[in-house]
Amino acid sequence: MTLFTGVGTALVTPFLNGEVDFSSLGQLIDWQIQQEIDALVICGTTGEASTLNDEEHIATVEYAVRYTAGRVPVIGGAGSNDTQHAIEMSQALEQVGVDGLLLVTPYYNKCTDRGLIKHYTAIADSVDIPAILYSVPGRTGVNISPFVVKNLRDHPNIVGIKEASGNIAQVVEIAKYVDDDFALYSGNDEMIVPLLSVGGIGAISVVSNIIPKDTHLMVKKYLDGDTESACNLQLAMKSLIDAMFCEVNPIPVKAALYYMGKIALEYRLPLCEPAPESVELIKSELSSYGLI
Predict the structure, then answer these.
(1) Catalytic residue among 63, 108, 134, 283
(2) Which of 61, 161, 191, 282 sits a CA distance of 20 to 30 A from 129?
(3) Is 107 annotated in the active site?
(4) CATH of the structural domain 6-227, one choice from 1.10.1270.20, 3.20.20.70, 1.10.10.10, 3.90.870.10
(5) What's the confidence (pLDDT) of residue 180?
């Protein structure tokens, strides 16, 4: 049931004149696959899912599924702070043919560990496709603890976790409770190699929007046993990664794709164009890396 090994790009959602720009989305998908990416995550945090209405969200995932046409797995973001809404979105994405789901923790209203277990169990029980848990407490205020993972790991539809807590000690603790049937993915681009070193099998990445081949290669080399080359790639991309988070994601990475000539520079409020000093940093790092 493992959805993928390697790197899944948390793909941006291009906009044009206030609407989803499906033409640019298709071009991004083609480029990502040409650059050897292992999977695509559609309508996650980087895809600005929080400002897509349900109709747009489902249509965007459906387009990605149809356009990708099985070339790589397509994973749809379906998390919500309302369990019933998450169930409905998960079932809708299953109906349009998505390969799997990415389920962020409930936000704002939050919940206890016990509530998290009930929340994820209810969603996973409602579908017949695999799901990846998504822990990003810096955004949601809710952490998926090792205790929660231990209690969910045996659900047949829960196949992994995107761990974006930034806490490597917690990742190590989670790794103690899972086996090869449960995938650990890094949700922090600067910590991909460290997570691989404790049993991870890949990453769900922001920086791979702009350097898909190098991000894929870093993970592949590590898993193939060439840890030195993987470490060198991780260090080489560190400054570029930092630039992609100089403002809240996905502001910098969408700007980077714009300067690379791949999408229009358009966001949905409350996200907006980066500040002039951020633009200078983004352009400088893109240039240093040879991307513009």
Answers:
(1) 134
(2) 191
(3) no
(4) 3.20.20.70
(5) 86
